[in-house]
Amino acid sequence: MNLIPKLAAILSLGLQVSCAHDDEPVQPQTLKFYKQVPGWRAQATNYLLQDYPRQDKRGQPFNASTRKLRCIKLNNYGCIKGPDKWRGAIGYDSARHTAFQDAKYSLMAKAYLFKEIYVDRGKKSLNAMFGEYAPSDDCVGSDANQNEDGTCTKYNDVDAYTKFLARNLGMYTTDENGKRVLDVFSDAKILNIFGQPNERFRQLMKYTSAYEIGWRYAKDEWIEYGIANMNRACINPSKERCPL
Fold first, then answer.
1. Predicted model pTM
2. Domain positions in the chain
């Protein structure tokens, strides 16, 4: 009998348990409104790297003055919503983005969502995954594209988002004319043969942050922390799906 798959699964489970901390908060009884969480700059210094490219996500010359800070100020490196569902949540902003006590909880939540969308919802391609993560009928939250009355001025562009990810993940295919094109419709293959996050999953963690918060993304050790502890992110996953 081949024991390697079973052994790998046991070791992976052990990694998740060993990285979790029993004293991590669930959430306070009362969630508060935040425009920024106190100490967000120190959090960003601790968690984030900067890698400014020559071009932005639309292929235009990159302008550092246009860098997004909205979700960074909330310690939320995925612009994730649903503050009443996530471990470490302390509040929300005007668009219901979660304000986290510590940014590590946002990385846990983002990893949880990627696996939940891919496995439980069966959305395998980048196009399908990010049609869930950043639906086209939702306002672009990271740019604060809302009028004072709450109406939206700019909606998510799933096509642009997924093409950005495919380009940075090196995902290409060949069309019917033999032309090399970005592949956003095939299985993204973000899990290994044991059903655990692979290197592409880690790169997805990185480049979604690059897209959402202006070419800043978490350091490798914190991406690993988020993945190892993702099963702790959702406060009560057995009763209700954690939202986007």
1. 0.81
2. 4-232
